[in-house]
Amino acid sequence: MLSNKNVFHACYTKVNPSVEVENPQLVAWSESVAELLDLDPSEFERPDFPLIFSGASPLVGAVPYAQCYGGHQFGTWAGQLGDGRAITLGEVLNAKSERWELQLKGAGKTPYSRFADGLAVLRSSIREFLCSEAMHSLGIPTTRALCLVTTGKYVTRDMFYDGNPKDEPGAIVCRVAQSFLRFGSYQIHASRGKEDLDIVRTLADYTIRHHFPHVENMSKSESLSFSTGKEDNSLVDLTSNKYAGLIVTPAFVVRWIILAWAVEVAERTASLVSRWQGVGFTHGVLNTDNMSVLGLSIDYGPFGFLDAFDPSYTPNTTDLPGRRYCFANQPDIGLWNIAQFASSLSFAELITDKEANYAMERYGTKFMDEYQAIITRKLGLPKYNKQLISKLLNNMAVDKVDYTNFFRLLSNIKADTSIPEQELLVPLKSVLLDIGKERKEAWTSWVQTYIEEDTFGI
C-alpha cells in the first residue's frame, strides 16, 4: 500500500511500476535514442519489449524508484511534490561512458502521487514523445523519448477541465536523460532545515561528480570571477595561496567548485530559455520542480509554440488569469527560478548570498548574449541591431503575424536595395493578411531598413 505522506531524509523511494495492461503495444520509437543507449534497433521487435517498457514485466537489473523533490508552483512554495507518475528504471552506462537514465511516465502510483492515479493517456504521451524529439532536432537541450507504448486500458480524464471527463487510451512514454534532477531536488531538503542540509551537500557533490565532472576536475590554473563581498569583483586564482586575504584551503576549493557549478547551472538555464525564445516555444508551467539542473527542457505538459505572435501567449489554461508563464515572461521566470535554486545552496551554506547573486548575474549576461546571437542569426544580419529587432517584434505583435512562417518567408527577401517599394512585401504576403494602408507602410519601412542592414550592415 503506497502512502501519500511526506517522505523525509531521502532523495528517492524504491517503487515498482503498477500500471495495469492488456496486450500493450509499441506504437512509436526513436532509433537515435536507442543508439545513445547502445540498443540494437532489433530489440524493438522483441515480443516482450512492450511488456518491459509498460512496466508490466521487470527489466533485468533495474531497481525502480521515484524521486523526491519540492518546488515553487506559480510563485508559491508547494512543499513536497516528487515523481507522481514517473518511475525511473535505472541508469545505462554506454560505450562512451555516458550515463542515461530510463524513466517510465504513466507507470502507476508512487509515494508522491498524492491523490492522482499515476497514469497517462495516449494524447499527452504522443505530445511528449514528438516534442522532445522535435526539440532535440531543433538543437534545443531536452529530455529524449525512447518509445511510446499503449497499455490497452482506458484512463478517465477531464481534458478541458469543464466537468465532462471521458475515457481515453492509456499510454506510457519511456523518457531518457542523463539525469532527471530538478531545482526542486535541492530545494526540498533545504526547506526542511538543519536535519536535511547534509542531504543538500551530498546531492550537490553527487551531481557535480557524475554530471559536471569538468567542474570538479578543473585545473588549478583555472580562474573564476565572482563577488567577494567587497565593492568590486575579485578573481579567484587557485594557483596562488591567497584569495582576498584568505588562505586557499581544501574547504575553500570545495566552495569554489560549488560556486562554479551553480554558475554553470545558471548559464545552462539562460542558454536554454534563449533558445526557447528563438523558436517560439512556451513551456507553460515553469515551476521550479520542472526545471532541470542540467539545463534541459523537461516535463512537456501544457506546452505550445507561437502561431500568431503574442508575447502574452500561454498554452496553460490554469495560467490564464495572471499569465505568469507566458512567452514574454520566460526569461524573467528562468532568473526567478535560478534565484530559488541558488537560495537553497546558500541556505545549506554551500555558497554565500553574494555568490548566489553572482550566479544570477551570470544568468542575465548569458541570456542576453545568446538571445541576441540567436535573433541576429535568425534574421541573417551581420550584427545585432536592437532598434530594428524591437520594431520587428512590435510589428509582429500588432498584426498577429505567424512567428514561424514569418521567418521562413523572410528568407525569400533579397538583399537588394533596388527592389521597387510596391514589391517589398510580396514575399511576406501570406502572413501579412488583412492589414490596412498604415500597417503596410510600417512593414514596408521595416523591410527597407532590414534590406539596408543586411546589405551594408549599417
From TrEMBL:
Pfam family, one: SelO
GO molecular function: AMPylase activity; ATP binding; metal ion binding
Source superkingdom: Eukaryota
Keyword set, alphabetical order: ATP-binding, Magnesium, Metal-binding, Nucleotide-binding, Nucleotidyltransferase, Transferase
Cofactor section: Mg(2+)
InterPro entries: SelO
Family to which this protein belongs: Belongs to the SELO family.
Name of the protein described by the UniProt record: Selenoprotein O
Species this protein is from: Actinidia rufa
